[in-house]
Amino acid sequence: MAEAVLDVRHQPKDRAYAQLQAHMTLVLAGIDDDIAAMATMSSMLHYGFRHLWTGFYRVAGPDLLRVGPYQGTLGCLEIVFGKGVCGTAAAERRTVIVPDVDRFPGHIACDARSKSEIVVPVFGRAGDLIAVLDIDSERRATFDAQDAAGLERMVGWFAGQRRG
Ligand code: SME
Description:
The protein has helices at 13-27, 34-49, 84-92, 145-155, 157-160; strands spanning 53-61, 64-71, 78-80, 96-98, 116-123, 129-137. By secondary structure, the chain is an alpha+beta fold.
């Protein structure tokens, strides 16, 4: 068990995500449990980058997301598909990067300190949407295509490793 917390804040993003990916693969080896995996990824990403909020909203109904494992201040409990950044990513099944949350109509402000955001859809083995990964930053324009690529690869665990 590799128990050290990786601090990747001062690494170039490609290296940061490669290190977190390698660590995650080790830590989650032999695990087939969505909650364990989501909790582990939330912790690694949150303490790796020290963002404001890092966590998952799980698909809880035909058009409903419900908060899952996360690190940070209280997140809103439920989000309907199509609402906010999370609901948009879920409805459109694509990664959404918001450089300035004040310019995203319908942004749901769970924490007023949030200034920018990325939301990545999480798919199961059959291509079904099972959750979204949401990361909020206190700085504007924190996230870019490198974050999208690194995070999409990381949540690819759910399509590749879990049985369902
Ligand atoms: N800002 C998100 C809501 C989730 S919280 O930020 C944790 C949104 O607009 O979907």
